[in-house]
């Protein structure tokens, strides 16, 4: 049997009204009487009517779809950002198309093309660790499709961005280690392709300088966020002639791996070596010892980014402004830096 999908014609016949009236009722047009609109909605639900978004997009040049591209879903950070973004999109009647590129530049480019092919009305983006060329995102801008970057942003594009103060957060983290008595603080940094890596490194270095500690290049290791490499780097640091007594990590997964290696070496945390992470991932409060970290307003990042994007979508391109929203962070002190009191 050939399947039949309910159309506005079926609803119009059922109610003995014109299909144009049905169409206006479904889109909330003010010219339709409230009782007519209620009748149309009731029949549409009864007949399991699904709006033909392709037809609507051809008429309005809008798909009511927003794209979100993130670098990974392995940690809790990006899923929570997406949840926050979806909350705002749903309130405005938008669907969300989500993709992750597994930290691959090539996959990010491919995902951006999928977004273009699906004619998204706008896109939220956090860059992969490999991304150094931004031509694929500049294409969106040329086509008049608004972009908002968050967390990992493209500094060379004049578009809205949502970030936290990575420099200040890193400064607070290292200052905390110094104030607990640590004197040789190492930093496992992220790739320098990411602005967040550079800003957190700058915050680390300036905190040392404030307290007249030397910036020792032997204690700074930049890596590509491949967690399997953390064990190699931590072992190297612990085997130095003068090993560190504190570690500031680019993110919580890095810090958690570091804790595991330090414990395997029979060292006490935080007495022998203290560890601070960044992001306040879900696991950071459950690891033993619990991880001192920087908390970011994760869902609020998503909500703010989506709000900026929706605002752009309501304006002519000539009125777009490259607003930068910087959200606050908080140092969460746990047992990896402060000894647990029995």
Q: Which keywords apply here?
A:
434 Repressor (Amino-terminal Domain), 342 residues, 41% helix, Rossmann fold, single chain, alpha/beta
CATH class of the largest domain: Alpha Beta
Q: What is the topology, as strand order, of the major beta sheet?
A: 2-1-3-4-5-11
Helical content band: 40-55%
Structural class: alpha/beta
* Principal-axes shape call: elongated
Biggest sheet architecture: 6 strands, parallel
The end-to-end distance, rounded to whole angstroms, is 73 Å
Task: Count structural domains.
Answer: 3
Number of strands: 12
Question: What name is given to the CATH topology of the largest domain?
Answer: Rossmann fold
Average pLDDT confidence is 91
Please state the second-level CATH architecture of the largest domain.
3-Layer(aba) Sandwich
The run of helices and strands is HHHHEHEHEHEEHEHEHEHEEHEE
CA-based gyration radius: 25 Å
Protein name: LacI family transcriptional regulator
Domain HTH lacI-type: 6-60
Organism: Pararcticibacter amylolyticus
Pfam families: LacI, Peripla_BP_1
Descriptive overview:
α1 crosses α3 and α10 (230-238) packs across α11 (252-264). α11 links the parallel β8 (246-249) and β9. The chain has 342 residues and is α/β, with parallel strands linked by helices. The chain folds into three domains: 8-51, 434 Repressor (Amino-terminal Domain); 63-164 and 298-326, 3-Layer(aba) Sandwich (Rossmann fold); 166-296, Rossmann fold (3-Layer(aba) Sandwich), CATH 3.40.50. The protein is built from twelve helices and twelve strands. InterPro entries: HTH_LacI (IPR000843), Lambda_DNA-bd_dom_sf (IPR010982), Peripla_BP/Lac1_sug-bd_dom (IPR001761), Peripla_BP_I (IPR028082). It holds the Pfam family LacI. This is LacI family transcriptional regulator.
């Amino acid at each position: 049997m050939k399947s039949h999908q309910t159309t506005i014609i079926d609803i119009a016949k059922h109610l003995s009204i014109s299909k144009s009236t049905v169409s206006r009722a479904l889109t909330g047009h003010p010219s339709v009487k409230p009782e007519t609109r209620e009748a149309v909605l009731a029949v549409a639900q009864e007949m399991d009517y699904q709006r033909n978004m392709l037809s609507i997009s051809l008429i309005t040049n809008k798909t009511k779809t927003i794209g979100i591209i993130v670098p990974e879903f392995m940690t809790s950070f990006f899923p929570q950002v997406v949840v926050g973004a979806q909350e705002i999109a749903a309130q405005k009647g938008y669907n969300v198309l989500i993709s992750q590129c597994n930290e691959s530049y090539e996959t990010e480019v491919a995902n951006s093309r999928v977004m273009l092919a699906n004619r998204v009305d706008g896109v939220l983006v956090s860059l992969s660790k490999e991304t150094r060329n931004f031509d694929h995102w500049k294409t969106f801008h040329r086509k008049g499709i608004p972009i908002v970057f968050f967390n990992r942003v493209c500094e060379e594009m004049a578009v809205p961005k949502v970030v936290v103060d990575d420099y200040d957060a890193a400064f607070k983290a290292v200052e905390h280690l110094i104030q607990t008595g640590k004197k040789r603080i190492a930093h496992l940094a992220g790739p320098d392709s990411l602005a967040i890596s550079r800003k957190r490194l700058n915050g680390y270095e300036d905190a040392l300088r404030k307290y007249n500690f030397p910036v020792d290049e032997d204690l700074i290791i930049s890596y590509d966020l491949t967690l399997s490499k953390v064990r190699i780097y931590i072992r190297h640091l612990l085997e130095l002639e003068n090993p560190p007594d504190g570690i500031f990590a680019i993110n919580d997964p890095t810090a958690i791996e570091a804790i595991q290696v330090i414990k395997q070496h029979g060292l006490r945390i935080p007495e022998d070596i203290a560890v601070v992470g960044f992001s306040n991932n879900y696991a950071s409060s459950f690891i033993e010892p619990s991880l001192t970290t920087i908390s970011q307003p994760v869902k609020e990042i998503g909500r703010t980014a989506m709000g900026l994007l929706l605002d752009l979508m309501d304006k002519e391109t000539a009125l777009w402004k490259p607003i930068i929203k910087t959200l606050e962070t908080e140092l969460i002190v746990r047992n990896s830096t402060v000894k647990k009191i029995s």
